[in-house]
Amino acid sequence: MPKLTKRTKFAIAAVVGVILLVGGMKIPVAMPPIDLAAEHIVTVLGLSVTNTLLATWLTMLFLLVLAIAATRNPKLVPTGLQNFFEAILETILNVIEGVAGKEKARSFLPLVATIFIFVLFSNWMGLLPGFSTIGLVEEPKKPEQHAVQFEKIELGSINLAYTPIGKKVEARDLQGEGNREGAKPSEGETGLSGVLVPFLRSANSGITSTLALSLIAMFFVEYFGVKSLGLSTYGSKFVNLAKLKKGKIAFGLIDMFVGLLEMISEVARLISFTFRLFGNVFAGEVLLAVITFLIPWIAVLPFMGLEIFVGFIQAFVFAMLTLVFLTMSTLHPHGESAHSHHGE
Fold first, then answer.
1. Domain map of the chain by residue range?
2. What pTM did the predictor assign?
3. How many other CB atoms are there within 10 angstroms of residue 85's CB atom?
4. Which terminus, N or C, of the chain has the lesser number of Cβ atoms within 10 Å?
């Protein structure tokens, strides 16, 4: 078989690209609903289970299986999956040692590594096929939502939806048809009419998920601060009455004001943690949805690559900020070292 030249390969790739581009523009895709809040899927023991919570559980299950596979038969000279994860953990440990020092690095490693790996995989899993595209069809509940027609997949008595046909359905066509499966298709049409509620949505695209991560990170920031310095010393950066007790009213009031600023900064860190990760991941989902709606198939591929990079950066930033805050919390609030404080 004759070997293809570079010009021939380029021509074939160009033709395939044009076919995909034109084909994507000719096959309409409905604009998916964009909602800040995670959608309710099912109620378990009186608790609402959302699609972002399901995605969180799926990520945890995936990482648990990987961890078991990597440590099932540990070897002195690691190979395969064990070698891969040891290389990741060693790299993370070296980064932590460069910021916090060797004495604290191993204490910080479990938290920082867990946050980085979990956020990274949850971000990347949100890009997999099926996320935000497979789910139940419901009647629109908000005025800004518009019903569209979907290809129907029947699973017993449950009607699922996968690919939007792209035809918008007027609200008057849905009157009297509200049920869990959404409105019934009009006569002569196939599919379901309504709004798609996906079973899975990127875990960090829901603000409750990022808030939970932020609360965990900040809890351990305070925990390591108290563990390293002691409750009274660590708490003195928030409430310092030493100068007031000595009769230095002006300096005492300044210390109280500084302590108030420290409290505000702790809350600001929590808010910043929560909204930075949520905003970037949610914006990425919206970007992919809009590009897929405008030009399906090939045009979205470069943006998928961008989201893979952004997913890594967000995981790295979240883990590094956690590490920095952990390191700062173990420093003496009045400029002395923790070692000299304990020596006293």
1. 50-129+203-343, 135-198
2. 0.77
3. 18
4. N
